[in-house]
Amino acid sequence: MPEITYREALKRALREEMQRDPTVVIWGEDVVAYAGGGAYGVTAGLAKEFPGRVRDTPIAEEAIVGVGLGAAMGGLRPVCEIMTVNFTLVAWDQIVNHVAKQSHMFNGQIKVPMVIRTPNGHGRTAATHSQNFDAWFASIPSLKVVAPATPYDAKGLLKTAIRDDDPVIFLEHLQLYSTRGEVPDEEYLIPIGEADYKRRGKDLSIITWGRMTIESLKAARILAEEGIDVEIVDLRTLRPLDVPTILESVRKTNRAIVVEEGWRTGGLGAEIAATIQEQAFNYLDAPVARVAGLEVPMPYARNLERATIPFAEDVVEAARAMMRNEY
Amino acid sequence: MDRESLISLYRQMLLIRVFEDRAAEMYAKAKIAGFLHLYNGQEAIAVGAVSALNPDDEIVVNYRDHGWALARGCSARAVMAELFGRATGTTGGRGGSMHLVDVSRHFWGGYAIVGGHLPLAVGLGVAAQYLGTGRVTLCSMGDGSTNIGTFHAAMNWAKLWNVPVIFVVENNQYAMGTAYEVHSAVPMLTKAAGYDMYAEEVDGMDVMAVREAVCRAAERARNGLGPSFLNMVTYRFRGHSMADPDVQRSKEEIAEWRKRDPITRFADEVLLKRGLVTQADLDAIRKSVEEEVEDAIQFADQSPEPPLESLYDYIYMQPVSNMQIGGSLIRPPKLGGRVAPNGKR
Ligand SMILES: Cc1ncc(C[n+]2csc(CCOP(=O)(O)OP(=O)(O)O)c2C)c(N)n1
Ligand SMILES: [Mg+2]
User: Fold this and answer.
1) A74 and A125 together in one domain
2) Per-residue pLDDT tens for B127-146?
3) A248–chain B Cβ distance below 8 A for any pair
4) How large is the ipTM?
5) For a Cys staple, B331 with which of A27, A131, B166, B335, CB 3.0–4.6 Å?
6) Which residues, in sequence order, are bridge partners of residue A168?
7) What is the Cα–Cα distance from B25 to B20, expressed in whole angstroms?
8) Pick from B252-256, B259-263, B283-287, B318-322: least confident
9) B183 within 8 A of B144, measured Cβ to Cβ
10) Ligand nearest to the CA of B41
11) Which of A32, A34, A59, A86 to mutate for ligand 1's pocket (most ligand atoms within 8 Å of CB)?
12) Has A104 been annotated as catalytic?
């Protein structure tokens, strides 16, 4: 199978869906002119291929989402790009009070077939530009929240998200855009709501998503050399959570570590750990552990940033401690 | 303005230019990382504006903030050290390029979320009005920031409460790659007209024009005449940030604007023309500026990184009892803490 980047996989999904459905449009800041298309190059060239359907917007995230919502109500399938997840904060009222309210509050009279694409990530950009709100998005009823880790998942999930009649928050990652992986030329879709075993193992379950899936895979290779055989459950969808797959894995391995990039307090790890102890308490040989980002506004300095973000080494450390029954 | 003051304006602009060019070099050498938004081309705005204000007038700007920090008197050493992420920087390496600050100089910071700082500039103005300090608040922003909700909210509020605030638009005609005509429906001054706000269009490449416009606006504010809106037309000579390949602006357009370079223009049209300096004087100024920036680079490079133990400093300014360090977080081993919550380690 040919290998392509995560970025290219996303672009192919956008292209295929735009070819398939003339109501799909792309709006966002700098998706056309800047550096050939997109702050991170995902939409590069698409404006030429689809005249009038890919448009640069003013810097006004509240309106990018709000106008996108109205257009979705009015018959389009907008894919709105918010340059980074940090700027979604400007649009949170639209997302929470408007996008996520229409279907249920209006008793099924309104559907919102829109996608909000936005990357997580860091890279020495300091506190306002290095954040992760996965857990917040995942706590909002009526949103679907997707966070693919690989090019294969990115393409299949984005195509599904665009066809979905509900609003989908599509969380990408700056550190993943240039990673490569196998993606078939033939069309395929990946259902929203299904986790994926990225590695099978018997000793403990690592439940994770996004960039931390990649870090956890690195950790798994190191741990395998030490005789620790981890299973990696890549959630892929953060809302609704695939609880059956999480439980299936934990009931087999009897140990679980939730690995997330964002802040620990109120993180998705807390929700998953609570769910496991509610539904699989008797299967556990150890408390459910969490690896998460340190709870500080991200510092710019190289050493402090590095200390704040979780890496494979932190997963390795947590897994070793768990296997030594130190939890 | 006397001769010394005019020469000082020149030196400050040149300091910013040389500082930015060397910072770009340091970025290429990976001494600086992340986003680095350079001020080349826009020097006349920070320098002219700061020269028109009192030292205790408040200043709030966006992430393109090196020039403002230097013009406000932050040392090249402290600013460069911040770009290097060192303990000796303006925020001890925490904020980096986009978040410079020096409250002792009434420089309230660079803000990296477009439009995020506009309401707080109005708030600083309201505080000054309420406390009767007589201070004026200058708030600078890019042209691209004039379309977001907070812009309109801040404009309306400032006018409604007659706040002593000066909105300075550094209109370099692009928001990243998006040209003014693509992001804005109406000319800039029309936006101010919508709030019936005193407004001027200013040549942002002319330091004296900037200075005079800010003087007028500050005087209005101090006399109780409320907010002003200054559309400073300018151009950035480099890409949006060091990450920008700058492909969307034509070579001709850039060359055309470079002819209006605010620094050479001020030297030619004011300093040399009026016989205030000789070319030898200008050369000497350049040499001293280059030395100052080289010294700043050496200083930054030799400064230590912030200590790891400082990571949790200032999470709160007022300590809370019974708080585990870092909130509910167990410190990971790399910070000298323990990984397991039961304390077995
Ligand atoms: C709310 C928000 N949206 C998007 C961005 C990303 N961004 C940073 S600078 C910029 C362009 C701003 O242009 P302008 O206001 O004209 O300022 P200039 O950079 O030209 O000085 C954008 C879109 C951001 N920082 N904040
Ligand atoms: Mg601009």
Assistant:
1) yes
2) 999 999 999 999 999 999 99
3) no
4) 0.93
5) B335
6) A115, A144
7) 9
8) B318-322
9) yes
10) 1
11) A59
12) no
Could you tell me if A152 and A57 lie in one domain?
yes
A164 lies in some domain = yes
pLDDT in tens, A264-278: 889 999 999 999 999
Backbone phi and psi for residue B203, each to the nearest 5 degrees, phi listed first:
-75, 105
**Which pLDDT score is estimated for A255?**
98
List, edge to edge, every strand of the sheet that includes B228-233: B107-111, B58-62, B137-142, B165-171, B228-233, B198-203
Pick the residue of B188, B311, B315 with the most A CBs within 10 A to test the interface with A by mutation.
Answer: B311
Amino acid at residue number A33: A
Catalytic residue among A29, A61, A81, A260, which? Answer: A61
Of the candidates B139, B71, B61, B136, which has an alpha carbon nearest to the alpha carbon of residue B100?
Answer: B61
Using pLDDT thresholds of 50, 70 and 90, give the confidence band for residue B340: very low
Question: Over the range B263-297, which residues count as b (16 or more CB within 10 Å of their CB) and which as e?
Answer: bebbbeebbbeeebbeeeebeebeeebeebbeebb
Query: Is A295 annotated as catalytic?
Result: no
Nearest CA to ligand 1 atom 11: B175
Domain at B219, CATH number: 3.40.50.970
User: Is residue A1 very low, low, confident or very high in pLDDT (cuts 50, 70, 90)?
Assistant: confident
Cα B162 vs. chain centroid, distance in angstroms? 25
B79 interfacial to chain A (CB closer than 8 Å): no
**CA B55 to the chain's CA centroid:** 16
Look at residue A190 and tell me if it is in a domain. Answer: no
Ordered DSSP codes for A8-23 = HHHHHHHHHHHHH-TT
* DSSP per-residue letters across B154-218: HHHHHHHTT--EEEEEEE-SEETTEEHHHH-SS-HHHHHHTTT-EEEEEETT-HHHHHHHHHHHH
